[in-house]
Each structure stands twice: as structure tokens, then as C-alpha cells.
Design goal:
single chain, alpha/beta, Kinesin, 2 domains, nine-stranded mixed sheet, three-stranded antiparallel sheet, 9 helices, ATP-binding
Length: about 400
């Protein structure tokens, strides 16, 4: 039976984004950055006028104790995923190969291992996992590197690759009550953003996309027509528990990047998200999509305006309907397959007994033969159900 982590309930009240700072080197006295006494802030000293300022954060670590981020900042993300909610981790400022490797090994690899360990221990059956890896180019275009339909991969030169942001997503789906027909589906998603560029507009690597999104949040929406800003906006304002990890160079005395990065990270810390448990019912959702399709078809027939937009929207609804039917159909297919296996086992036992006993009481033999015939018919009926369902699914895909 599938269960969720009852020991880590998800609060459905707004919660501010938690922010952790990673210092790329251990600060010394001459550096512009130092760790506060409580370990939850940065003391910044300007290299121009020696002005001092305290930037409070949830946690500050160096490269030597980066693992300490897990209990305080990252474990709540793992709990969020296993409790059927969404989580997002944003990583900024990792500009050197050494820091990138450290982040990948000590943070990305560890949080993925923890999430998969939690999910596999709690959901014992029918756990559906999907992954995607989006790479965002400086011009705003995006490619899913794990898509089987992608074009042939092209070799990227290092300067371009160093300016590419990326998003690795893992989505989990499982039945809330697997023993019930038409059970609700639990959903959770972990998004791991790796954002390129600097917090200062003068940075040679380009501007971090987080800078532009933070400028648009006070206006209630993002005006960009690119994919990455919309995904970031949703992670910072939508249904998600979000954490930001920012890598800072303590030795940045004369440039604007360090104070800009500290200011940006502190602004993100003031943003509130609301993580809620995500459940949905395939059959109820299917009916809702059907109703929306009928309403949209009526609109298209009676209203000549926005015809192109409505046509695209109709195609999207039909695609969503097919996905919903496929998910429900896959569950029905699994149930039918289990039924066939059970019937075949019963049929084999009856036939083995019939062969082993051979001649005997005529009445018992007739009863056994009748049971064998009924089992054969039941197997044929279940097999036919799967065949018809498969043909319907193939037909719908051909029509689309």
C-alpha cells in the first residue's frame, strides 16, 4: 500500500524562500566577506568606502562544510516531495569548474539520492517516475536533452556552454489507495535549477535570469515570452517549497558582483511560496477536460474571433485528454494483466490435477472439465479487453 510521510506534514501557509550561502574560499581578514558569529549571516565590507553591512541568511557555509546544508536547508525539500508536494532548488554563482563539480557531487547527487531513497521506501508499488533535463541557451531557446525526439546533439564551445542555464526535473506519481478502483493520484515534483550569469549587469557572463524575474515579481507576472523566466516565476511564487543556494567569492573586493549577489539573494529570501499537497483523480479530470473541450468547440462555432488561438487550445486539451486516458488505461491494463495471470494459474492447476488423476469418478471429472472451460473463457475475455483498449488508444493517437 502506498503511503506518504506523515512525520513531515506540509504547511499550507505561505513560507519564505530559504537561502543558503556557500563561500568559495575560507574568508580571511582582508576579504570583503566574513561569516557572522551565529553562522546565519554575511558581514560585507565595501572595498571602496569600507562601509560595513550585515546580510542575514538561513545558513552560511564554506566549501569545507558544504554537507551541513542538507539537514537544515535541503532535507525539508525531500520531505516535501515524499509528502506529495513540490520542491525547487535554485543554484547560482557557481562560476568555476571546481565549484560546479562540488555542487554536483555534494548537493545535487545527494538530494537526488535522498529523494529516491525516501520514495522507494514509502511507495511500495505503482510508482511512476519521469525525468527531464532542459538546457537554456543565451538567446532564450531551450532543448530537452533527455527527449527521444530531440535533434542530433551539437558540440558546444566552452564560452557558450558556460552561459547556459539548466533545469533537471524529477516527477513522481503514485496511487493514494492502490487497492481502490479509481483512486486519487498523488503527485510531486523536484526541480533543480542551475542558473548561469552574474547578479551584476556588468558581469561578462551575462545577467543571471533570476535578476530579471525578481524585477517582475512585484508586478504580479513575468512579461517574458521565454520558458525559463516562467518556470522560475512559478518556482518563486507558486505551489512549491523553494530553496536558493548562492555561491559567493569572499575575495571580490573591487567588483560589483559580490554586493549585487548578496542583495539579490536577500531579495529572494523575502519571497513567499505556498506548498500544498497535490492529489488528482484521472476520471474526474478526464470528465472536466471533456467539458472544457465541448465549451471550446461551441465557442469556435459561434465566435469567429481568436480562431487560431482557440484551435491551438483545443489541440492542447485533446492532447491532455489522451494523456489522462492513457494513465487511467495503463492502470486498467495492469489490473487486467494481474487478473489474467491469476486465471492462468488456476487453469494450470486444474489441468495438472485432471492429468494426474486421470480416470476416476465421472461426476468429478465432468465438474473439473466445466471449471476448465469457464477458466479458459475468462482468460479469453480478459485478453480481449486488453486488445480492445489497446486498439482504442492507437486509434486516438492516429486521429490526433
Amino acid at each position: 500500500m502506498a503511503t506518504v510521510n506523515s512525520n513531515a506534514p506540509i504547511s499550507e501557509v505561505p513560507e519564505t524562500v530559504r537561502v543558503g550561502l556557500v563561500l568559495s574560499t575560507i574568508p580571511v581578514e582582508k576579504d570583503c566577506v566574513g561569516v557572522s558569529e551565529d553562522g546565519h549571516g554575511i558581514n560585507f565590507t565595501s572595498g571602496r568606502n569600507e562601509e560595513k553591512k550585515l546580510f542575514p541568511f538561513d545558513q552560511v557555509v564554506t566549501v569545507d562544510n558544504i554537507q551541513s546544508l542538507h539537514p537544515e536547508l535541503l532535507q525539508p525539500l525531500v520531505d516535501s516531495i515524499s509528502s506529495s508536494s513540490n520542491g525547487a532548488l535554485l543554484i547560482c554563482g557557481a562560476s568555476t569548474e571546481k565549484i560546479c563539480t562540488l555542487i554536483d557531487h555534494c548537493i545535487i547527487k545527494q538530494i537526488l539520492a535522498n529523494v529516491f531513497s525516501h520514495m522507494s521506501s514509502q511507495v511500495k508499488e505503482d510508482l511512476f517516475i519521469s525525468v527531464s533535463f532542459l538546457q537554456f541557451y543565451p538567446d532564450g531557446t531551450a532543448v530537452d536533452r533527455l527527449s527521444p525526439n530531440r535533434q542530433t546533439l551539437k558540440l558546444l564551445t566552452l564560452p557558450v556552454l558556460g552561459r547556459c542555464s539548466s533545469l533537471f526535473s524529477v516527477a513522481f506519481e503514485w496511487k493514494l489507495h492502490p487497492e481502490e478502483v479509481g483512486s486519487e493520484i498523488c503527485c510531486s515534483r523536484l526541480q533543480l535549477f542551475s542558473l548561469a550569469g552574474g547578479a551584476s549587469r556588468a558581469d561578462l557572463r551575462g545577467v543571471n535570469p533570476l535578476v530579471k524575474v525578481m524585477e517582475q515579481i512585484p508586478h504580479g507576472a513575468t512579461t517574458s515570452d521565454k520558458l525559463l523566466p516562467h518556470l522560475l516565476y512559478e518556482a518563486l511564487t507558486g505551489n512549491s517549497q523553494t530553496v536558493l543556494i548562492y555561491c559567493i567569492n569572499p575575495q571580490g573586493l573591487l567588483d560589483d558582483e559580490t554586493p549585487s549577489a548578496l542583495t539579490l539573494a536577500q531579495k529572494v529570501r523575502s519571497i513567499a511560496t505556498k506548498a500544498t499537497v497535490v492529489h488528482w483523480c484521472p476520471r474526474a479530470t478526464e470528465q472536466q477536460i471533456r467539458d472544457n473541450i465541448m465549451d471550446l468547440q461551441t465557442t469556435i462555432m459561434s465566435d469567429g474571433e481568436n480562431e487560431v488561438h482557440n484551435t491551438y487550445k483545443l489541440a492542447e486539451l485533446m492532447h491532455n485528454l489522451q494523456n489522462c486516458k492513457s494513465l487511467d488505461g495503463e492502470q486498467q491494463d495492469r489490473e487486467s494483466t494481474d487478473t489474467i495471470k491469476y486465471l492462468q494459474d488456476q487453469l494450470r492447476q486444474e489441468m495438472e490435477e485432471h492429468i494426474r488423476e486421470g480416470k476416476g469418478n465421472v461426476e468429478k471429472i465432468q465438474q473439473r472439465v466445466a471449471r476448465i472451460q469457464k477458466l479458459k473463457e475468462a482468460v479469453r475475455e480478459e485478453t480481449q479487453k486488453i486488445r480492445v483498449a489497446t486498439e482504442k488508444s492507437d486509434f486516438c493517437q492516429d486521429v490526433q
